[in-house]
Amino acid sequence: MAGVANEISVFPMHIVRCLSIIASLSDTQTPVATALGFIAHLLIAWNTLDTNTKACVAKHVHGILQLNAMDNIVKWERGNRDIKDFQNDDSKEIYSGMSQNFYLDSSKAYFVTRAVLRAIFPRIAVLALLQILLEVVEHYRAFLFIQLLGHFVMPNDNNSNANNQVFIYKVILWSVLFVCIPTKRYVQNLISLTMDCMKNMLSNKLIELYIEKNCESSCLQAVNHAAITSGVFFYRNSLNQLVQYAIALVSQVFNVYVVVSRVGWLTLIPILFSATLTGASQKIMSQTIAHRRKALARRQPDFTVSITDMIAKMRAIKFHNWERVFEHNKDFETKVNPPFYLQLQDGLFSTLSETSARISVAATLAILVFRGQGISYAELLLITSSMLALVGFTKTIMIIPSEIKNLEDVESAYKRVIDSHKVKYFPRYTHQGLDNDIAVVMDGCKFHWGPDKFSISSITMQIKRGEFITVVGKVGSGKSSLLLAIGGEMPIVSGSGSVHGSIGYVSQKPWIMNATFRENVIFGNEYDEKYYRCVIDACALVDDLAQLPSGDLTEIGHRGINLSGGQNARLALARAIYNRADIYILDDILSAVDAHVERHLIEHVLAGNGILANSTRILVTHAEHVLPLGNKVVTMTQGQAQIKDQKPIDFIKVSNKLSDSVSTENNANTNTQSNAGVFTTSPETEMSQPFSWQILWRFIKLSGYAAVALSVFIEFANTYMLYHMQNLHWNLVLTNSTFMDVDALKTYIVLDITKVVLETAADKSKRWIRMRVWDGGLSAKMQKKLVHHWLYMRLTAFERLSKHTLDSVFFRERSVIAYSVPMILSFKIDTAFKAIAGILGIIQKSATVLAAGLVVVVMLRRYDMRRYAAQEYLTSNTGSIVSRDRSNMAGEVIAGHQIIRMHNKVSVFKKKLTELSIKGSEMHRICMDMVMFRLCIQRITSDLLEAAIILYCKFLQVYFNQPFSPGKVQVIVGLGLYAVNSLNNISIFSQDIMLVLSPLARYFVYSETLEQELQHTIMNSRPPANWPNHGLVEFKNYSMRYRDDLDYVLKDLSFAVRGNEKIGIVGRTGAGKSSLSQALLRIVEPTSGKIVIDGINTATIGLADLRSRISIVPQDPVLFEGTVRENLDPLHEHTDDEIWNAIRKVQIKDIVMQPTDKFNKSDLSMMKNSGPWIAGIGLHKWVENDGVNFSVGQRQLLSLCRALLWHRKILILDEATANIDSKTDQIMQSVIRNEFKDCTVLIIAHRLKTVLDSDRILVMDQGQVAEFDTPSNLLAQGGLFAKLVESMEFNERTI
Questions:
Q1: Which distant-in-sequence residues (6+ apart) come within 8 Å of 20 by Cβ?
Q2: Average pLDDT, stretch 317-326?
Q3: Residues 231, 1166: contact at Cβ < 8 Å?
């Protein structure tokens, strides 16, 4: 099928051809014969078209006649609910056509806009020409209506019949030309659909540019999903507005002609006046914006965390009892109110700007009064309407600079990403040189993260294909940076070299998609069941899959939240292996697993006959016993690499005695399908959809009765004033309905200016009061309520919620509710008052019009109910799902860009984004069809009412000699339309409210109904201030599970820990070790049994009292954006000296004394201006978000420093030293022994050496206590712990 642009161009061409045939063949003179000739020749022209063109014309006629919307309504009524039932290929064709023509040349100014125009110009040009033609026809139709009013001057008997015949012809022509209105809306919808496809393409292209090639870290602030969505949305709107301005510029020729022909040079008055006021208003607005930006540019940043950051790090907040820190965080939505004088100036000039059209028209009419000229009422209407349109266009022209500014913001984001591509990276040749024996070659290569940032000194190294390279070094020495440099992720400064072959990469902190287990492993590759099972077995995931509710079809939560650290690491390893790469870059994959699994991974993956034994492997490790297996050992020291070649020892296969702990049977549950495998939940799916007064009443209660009552009173007073002003206007028109003399014109001018100024000022005042009294307070209440509700949720329930949905509720839904709902309610209240006032006025003037209006409203209501039900479902359900899926995918792609790029899966995720974007554009088209359907039905009924009133009045004038004048007819028509609009607005009150009731219901679901934790403080059951003073911990028949539909993770535990004991907790992956820490902190409540600490049952006290008395260093160290001091002591409970003392004991003084580089956030309108900042050193050293300017090991040391600073009686170390080297581990164990000797310490570890000097060892197995005794006794017993130690020693001895 031909492209859509070609189809649209073919249609008018054949219509012109048809009209030319009619003009050449028609010789009839009577209207009936002419009409028949037109139809006949139209049929002839239709038959001359080819099949494709006929299909194209039929499709567009189908759209113009609103049959698309009718089809969708019928489909919905028949029970079709899938988006596929409503889709067509329009969006796909448009998107594909634009993508093919979209290419960037960053050397030119406005290169993005150039590329966009190049992609959309053929289609937009045709549509714009059509819209210009339709705009002119619409202007002519309005002019024709005024001529119809002119026919109501009392006719002369000599030519009354001729005038009446002309009148009838004009009515028919005016009615026929109505087709231009739905056609124009259809064309506008096509333009809007094109712009929406362009918006999605632009957003996807920016993401693609980001993930295709490496970008500097400075681009991270420009490329995040929220910034992209916001920036491209404004770009789309601005470009659409510029296109509409260009169309209006041409179509305004008609109005210019009308005004100039009537008033001559006076046409310049409204143009110059409105341009001056609009310019002044924009100047004041720019001053206000500049003040806000200046206030937001803080030189000394505070510890303020975004809501997105809070959501992502909720686990750490719970562990550290930091809810009250974030509950009062005011940076979730920073607002700066300008000074009152700026607000007053802004209000005054914006009022004058909005009324400038009427004032300038009044000024022009005043000159006519000064000349002593009268004017007919019809002429007055013509001049007024033409001038208002011309002035409106002038005002829009003045806004063009701000629209261009929105274009520049996206241009800037693209420019930054493309410029970052100019940075040189380590090259990789995926398909070249594979026959060569060389996998990696580096010759004097020096890498750095940027000027004055961490760098890797000149390194020369050659890695042959199939070699095993091990990388070791202290914390922060540059091990991970070296791997990223080889993978092409760290900029190269000098030297040469390359990588030959594809890469499989496992990061130190694994990135896991929110998808099923299987989707995470195959990662866009074809599913090969045999190889898949082999990979699962090699990565020791067989038993783990058997424990998952739906096997490998189980959904894995955001960042692998429902898996253990070891499971996440092995899942990421399986993904890299399944990619069938040539070179594997593995960053510390052994630190998160126990000795048995470590041996399994070495035997089945890395060495011996492992699945990667013949591939090139580069492994960062702290396990020194693995080093002899390597061909080279690279030792990193502060960015300098020392390379030692060696002959690898032969790997000794582990004995069966030790291997029985890791199952090798392929009994993975890979085909189970069950809802139990769904991790992410959507609480809003169970909320009621129909209109509910209860929800609306809850909203009013939330808003505050006083604020709502004040708004109602203001609306009533405003309506009362405007009603009297409108009555005066009507009476003046009725009194001078044929000709306005000078005195009447003076009164008309004064009354018109007064009415417009008062109406605008009242509207401004209403809006200002509503923003101050209702909207602003409501937004703050909603924010506080949401944050409080989320902070005190059960962590297990919170982590199952979609993070993108929570973001949407906090930002989009809250914004809609806080600002749109009060506005809509105020509008509806205003409409109700005006409708009552209008009905009273209509009854006084013409009761017949009211009856006709009621008939029209009944017709509209019938169609509206059908349309609304379908539209509400499609937008609130299907549309929100499509939007959520695309948002989730975009967020995942941005977060995992390194993995996607290094695994060469950019094209896979580009395809997924494209498919979701096309679905989103289809939903946009469907919604626009529905909206256009309603507007067209309203316009049809309104025009029918106008025609009926005009014909009825003419009938009374001709046959009953009743006096009618242009003014009187215009007033009656106006009253009729006013009645229809008012009654219709009242009748669809529930429908319009329902459009915002859906987000309102979602808000109440997410702010009131989510599962909450138990009380944080129980006033009548608070522990003593010095509790716990002994540190005695007792588990008594304790059982726990994370959800009711899951198995127990802790089963009938009973053991006691004496005060000041050092307890090592060991066990295989999934044995329940980390669950013990969650049980102690009551992250999960017990199903039976209890935990007693120093004689107090922890279930009887508040959660805050419990968690504030226990320190924990979690497995995943978390740092927030802020200074080192604020990260260590956000509650400001300690002095600087105490903090420095803790830093020195943990031996990280040299780390915090290294200054953070200049941290500059550019002033893009996509983002809040937040800089530049120059961070200091020591306690004022700036910690970037997620602590990215620290290594993972350094983040763990900072977490340990927190525990040392707090020095609570009970300390939990959950794999706290997993990511640090053995020497640093020894130092940390010494710190723990010396500084926490008077504390009870529970040490969860995979490294058995870490716990061998503990007082006792607790061995966990399948959620139960397998062994609990001193290390020496356990070794003597020869039980499970002895096997673990034997396995560790065997690994060290035999490798």
A1: none
A2: 88
A3: yes
Report which secondary-structure segment, H or E, holds 1242. strand 1240-1244
Across 723-740, average pLDDT:
65
Q: How far apart are CA 1069 and CA 254, in angstroms?
A: 79
pLDDT bucket at 303, cuts 50 / 70 / 90: low
Asked, as a colleague might, if the bond just before 1028 is cis with ω within 30 of 0, I would say yes
Mean pLDDT, residues 83-91: 65
Query: Could you tell me the pLDDT band of residue 864, with boundaries at 50, 70 and 90?
Result: low
Characterize the bridge pairing of strands 1182-1183 and 1122-1123.
antiparallel
Quick one: which of 602, 608, 543 has its CA closest to 573?
Answer: 602
What is the amino acid identity at position 1270? T
pLDDT of residue 450: 75
CA-based nearest residue to 1084, from 811, 888, 796:
796
Q: Is the pLDDT of residue 1162 over 90?
A: no
CA distance 730 to 755: 12
Closest CA to 1040 of 1030, 1029, 1024, 1052: 1052
Give the phi and the psi of residue 1122 in degrees, each rounded to 5: 160, -165
Indicate if the pLDDT at residue 243 is higher than 50.
yes
Distance, CA of 197 to CA of 189 (rounded, Å): 12
- Nearest residue to 264 via CA among 366, 379, 368: 368
Identity of the amino acid at 238: S
Q: Measured on CA atoms in the order 747, 750, 753, 754, is the torsion positive or negative?
A: negative
DSSP label at 1134?
S
Mean pLDDT: which of 47-51, 635-639, 738-742 is highest? 635-639
Average pLDDT of the chain, as a whole number: 76
CB atoms near residue 793 (< 10 Å): 19
Angstrom distance (rounded) from CA 907 to CA 215: 18
Q: How far is CA 710 from the centre of its chain?
A: 35
The alpha-helical segments, DSSP class H, found in 371-461 are: 377-398, 400-420
Contact 320, 1107 (CB under 8 A): yes
CA distances from 25 to 16, 29, 34, 460 (A): 14, 12, 11, 88
> Could you give the CA distance from residue 271 to residue 259 in angstroms, rounded to a whole number?
12
Burial classification of residue 962, based on how many CB atoms lie within 10 Å of its CB (0-12 exposed, 13-18 middle, 19 or more buried): exposed
Strands 1110-1113 vs 1210-1214: parallel, antiparallel or unpaired: parallel
SS3 370: helix
Q: How far is 1282 from 1260, CA to CA, in rounded Å? A: 13
Q: How many CB atoms lie within 10 A of CB 419?
A: 14
Of 154-168, 333-347, 684-698, 1092-1106, give the range with the top mean pLDDT.
Answer: 1092-1106
Compute the distance between CA of residue 426 and CA of residue 484 in angstroms, rounded to an integer.
10
What's the pLDDT at 1086? 92
C-beta of residue 737 within 8 angstroms of C-beta of residue 377: yes
- pLDDT range class, residue 784, cuts 50, 70, 90: confident
Region for residue 1200 given its phi and psi (left: phi exceeds 0; alpha: psi -120 to 50; beta: otherwise): alpha
Asked if 545 contacts 670 with a C-beta cutoff of 8 angstroms, the reply is: yes
Among candidate residues 748, 921, 719, the one with its CA nearest the CA of residue 840: 719
The CA-atom distances, in angstroms, between 729 and each of 689, 736, 946 are 44, 11, 20
- Residue in this structure with the two tokens 């005038």, named with its chain if needed: 163
Please report which confidence band the pLDDT of residue 657 belongs to, taking 50, 70 and 90 as the band edges.
Answer: very low
Following DSSP, what letter does each residue of 1021-1078 receive, concatenated? Answer: GPPPTT-SSS--EEEEEEEE-SSTTS--SEEEEEEEE-TT-EEEEEESTTSSHHHHHH
Q: What percent of the chain clears pLDDT 90, i.e. is strictly above it?
A: 11
Residue 467 has pLDDT above 70, yes or no: yes
